[in-house]
MBL fold metallo-hydrolase
Amino acid sequence: MKVHFLGVGEACDPEHCNTSLLVLSGSKNHYILLDCGFTTPHRYFKDCSDPEQLEALWISHFHGDHFFGVPLLLLRFWEMGRTRPLLLVGPSGLQEKVEMALDLAYPGFGRKLRYAVQYLVVAEGDSFTAAGFAWQTAAMDHSQPCLAVRLTSEGKSLLYSGDGRCTGPVADLARGCDLIIQETYRVSGETPGHGSVAGSLALARQAGCLKLALVHIGRLEREGAAEKLRKLCPQGEVLAVLLPEAGETLVL
């Protein structure tokens, strides 16, 4: 499994694209995009030139920095001549929200698409198979209903939080993952409904995870984050804590 970080920033960060990840399932070349915010499509097409490559798109919740890029993604695929169906997976209201956003961005454009957009609505606690992966979901603690997702393929698993603070079901879902990708808005202290360094470290240690990637760090706290992390992570600890940058790829 490979994880390509298209963006690692929060909603208002001018230096870092919105958090979004492209996940590749090993030998069978199944590609899934995790979240698609305002800035995601430009970065996606900078790194991915094949309009048929993407098989599925996961939307964790309906804040703009996680799904307002969908209209542009669909438009660009149409412009590039895509014919392969695209599966959209996400919480209740998925089809209505996406079609509303598409019609607001480009009125009537949805009728012009030459490829099928398919919708799979899921709820917390669901387990299913799609696009070459086994999927499991759990609810985060966030101001907007948000689902974390665990993806498993060819013996490797990752957990992607979307936004929010970890809950008991999310901690259970994270057990045994090879990688946790956690929204960590706060480096110091806590903000209701958001992740923190302390909470992210506790989650990874409890889950027995060996790799933790911190994303969506608040733009006002990003400077000096690496130094603060070094102080919080004892020397010799098995857990590897990563601060990925856009364009980086992690192989599991």
